[in-house]
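Q: Structure for this?
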Amino acid sequence: MTSYAKKIKAAVLCGAMAVGGTSASAEMEYQDVADLLHLVMSSDRTVYTRMIVNRLAVKEKVITASEHFEDDKALVLPAQMFRFGAEMVAEETDAFSYSLLSLWPINKQNAPSTDLEKEGLEYLADNPGENFYGEEELGGTTYFTAFYPDISVAEACSSCHNEHKDSPRTDFEGGDVMGGVVIRIPMDG
Amino acid sequence: MSRTVLLWGLWALLTGLGASAVFAALYINGDRSVLLPGQTAGAHHQLEIACETCHTAEPFASQAKVQKKLNKTCVTCHKDELKAGDDSHPKKKFTNPRMAAYWEEVDGRFCTTCHAEHVPEQTQPMMVTLQGDFCVSCHSKGDQDVRKNRESHAGLGFDTCASAGCHNYHDNRALYEDFLVKHSGKDWLAAHPVVEAAALPTAAKPVDQQEIATYLAAIEAPAADDAINHDWAGSAHAVANVTCNSCHAAEDTAWTDHPDQGVCADCHKSAAKSFSLGRHGMRGHSKISKPRDVEKRLKKLGLPDAPEFLVSAIETYLADPSQPEVMTVQEARVDLKAEAHGEGMTCNSCHLPHREEPDHSAVTACLTCHNDDHSLSYLDSPHHNLWQAELTGNAVPGSGVTCATCHMPQSEKKGLAVTNHNQNDNLRPNEKMIRSVCLTCHSLEFAIDALADPALVSSNFSGQPTRHIESIDWALKRVEPSEQGANQ
């Protein structure tokens, strides 16, 4: 099977997973599924960060972006936009789940909570441009867990994290690995 | 036949009958109140005999399924308030497998983890059935250790998180750090304290006695009772051509002296809906289960074609008791006046049927039943003085504060004031009242301090808070670092 055809098949399977709630097919590598899911996630997230938040809040300054977007009548932060999507997916299916984590989280809930998360996030930080894959057992289920670097793609990313009063790190620059997207696919059944 | 054999036979017969009755009540039909494992919490006693409201799993389902279905029913009724309260610990935050370690501590995927039912002996305020220091389970270790993340919290006990006016598990809309900073440094009382929605024009009605007299003289008086004619002619109902028959013989039905609530609800839909969401009206909530259908129950037990005599016998002798349509005063589990016993909660409990009387609906009706210190202190409170001033024309509209001002807040919709008839909507925890009510006239600091002072709540806010909650001070310290570098 050519790489192109494999990707098409994977995309179809991804769609079926999201709709039907089935787990990843044995015919398809967990890593391929995770890579494709991440491609969609990171593209959407980059578009929102660059074309909405960075353009309107940082360059044109016509609106602000705020964690308290309702009270402040502001844009949802890129990290929140990503997280809300993850929560919506979690309400629809348990065939996969994803999160945005960091070794330097503003919100401490997003610090690594499993041994593999710590290992994966450290690998991403130490090996820019590389992904990390592993398996772990959580709550009695074995998961294929994939880690993808979350990179500062716009000025808004690094400046906001550097200036936030709860940020444990204040020297981020454009292009830095700021954390990681973690995708989990249950391997049992 | 010996006497012993006879007695054994009688014992077996009675035991069989008893077991059958219990089985029938559990799985087919019958009064199950004796089988209630323990009193339910809060206002849930109002739906205690309608077990299927919460217990929706099939008989003999697995424990996991029972737990899942049970918890689903919690959000059937409480979903909107959790959403409106911007729930700080929603279920969706806990379902990700990375939270598995926390499931062992406090399993946030299920409401029943903290709010177990039928265990009155361990039920705390807010219907919580965990110890008051439950925050310790997740916020005391590693990266989550709040004592390390917040210098100000270093010496605090975990039993104070939710009990000192600083945090709530669900609703922190008025307590989150940036909100505290944003609303800091204001005077305790606004320069012009007025509830704008309460000052909106109400539905058109005659302006004075002369207009009422002229109107009545021009029509054929509809009722035999002059007082009723006069009251009705002065109301918005008369202006809107809502006549006697509109309510007493609605839609060409036979005349009734006492129309039921449905007649009111036909027009006052939004009021009826919000009324059914609060303790006063929740007996009318659409999600309370109806008595079980005998044929359906028999079918589920493997008797799809049960003989008609069996069905009718069960319906006659083992019928599920019907849920009362309205809540009554004597059923309530809060302190109410003995002389109000026998009263049922309907629209007319608070609204006079033929006359609009704001003082009656917003104050007098409440005090007809409520007998706690906070209610009894109202008439001597500064809030009541403001209401008296507004009623006598000595203060501007919207400046008075009644029971309803705080417990049934109004909002503007299409230029008119809409009253929230769910008087529990902002009640517990009382910090829910800060944004919807208190901040209209008071500073955030004053509101937090006042609501955290039980004696001041009891005296219906007659005075100033005697304690100060430091949350705003601490929040300010983090954004305005002192020379010592308070910002961590």
